[in-house]
C-alpha cells in the first residue's frame, strides 16, 4: 500500500483555493515522519490552505528546530500524528510555539544552542 492510500493524500487532492502551489507528494509526508522519528518532543502544527499554497504542516522539535511540508489536508497529518503518537494542533487556534521563533532567531544569527 502506498503513502497516498495509507494517509489519504489521493482524497486530499481535491480542488481547493490553492492555485500556484504544487500538490502534496509522498516525499512531503515521509519528510515529516522522518523528522518526527529522528527528534524528540515533536509536535505538528497544521496551517490552513490559502490562495497560494495548499494545507501544510509544521513539525517542531523540543529545541525549536522545525520543518514545513505540504500535506494536502488536515486529515492526512492527523493520521500521521495518530500513528506516531505525536500531538497535532491547529496553528490558527494555538499559534506557533515560542521555541520555534527562538530557534529561527538563533539560526539567523548563526548561533548554536550552546551560545
Structural features:
about 120 residues; alpha+beta
Q: Strand arrangement, largest sheet?
A: 3-2-1-4
Radius of gyration, CA atoms, in whole angstroms: 14 Å
Helix content: 40-55%
Mean pLDDT: 84
Strand content: 15-25%
- Class inferred from helices and paired strands: alpha+beta
What is the succession of H and E elements? HHHEEEHEHH
Gross morphology is globular
Which blocks of ≥5 consecutive residues have pLDDT under 50?
Answer: none
Largest sheet: 4 strands, mixed
Query: What separation lies between the terminal Cα atoms?
Result: 46 Å
Number of helices: 6
How many DSSP E strands?
Answer: 4
What does this protein structure show overall?
The protein is built from 6 helices and 4 strands; from the N terminus they run H-H-H-E-E-E-H-E-H-H. Helix 3 runs parallel beside helix 4. Helix content is 43%, strand content 16%. The relative contact order is 0.20. It is an alpha+beta fold and 115 residues long.
Topology:
Layout: H1 3-7, H2 9-12, H3 26-38, E1 43-47, E2 56-60, E3 66-70, H4 74-84, E4 88-90, H5 91-94, H6 98-109
Parallel strand pairs: 1-4
Antiparallel strand pairs: 1-2, 2-3
Amino acid at each position: 500500500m502506498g503513502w497516498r492510500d495509507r494517509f489519504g493524500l489521493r482524497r486530499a487532492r481535491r480542488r481547493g483555493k490553492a492555485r500556484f502551489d504544487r500538490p502534496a507528494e509522498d516525499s512531503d509526508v515521509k519528510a515529516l515522519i522522518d523528522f518526527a522519528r529522528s527528534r524528540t518532543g515533536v509536535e505538528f502544527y497544521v496551517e490552513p490552505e490559502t490562495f497560494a499554497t495548499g494545507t501544510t504542516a509544521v513539525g517542531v522539535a523540543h529545541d525549536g528546530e522545525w520543518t514545513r511540508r505540504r500535506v494536502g489536508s488536515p486529515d492526512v497529518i492527523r493520521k500521521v500524528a495518530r500513528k506516531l503518537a505525536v500531538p497535532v494542533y491547529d496553528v490558527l487556534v494555538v499559534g506557533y510555539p515560542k521555541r520555534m521563533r527562538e530557534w529561527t532567531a538563533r539560526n539567523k544569527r548563526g548561533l548554536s544552542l550552546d551560545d
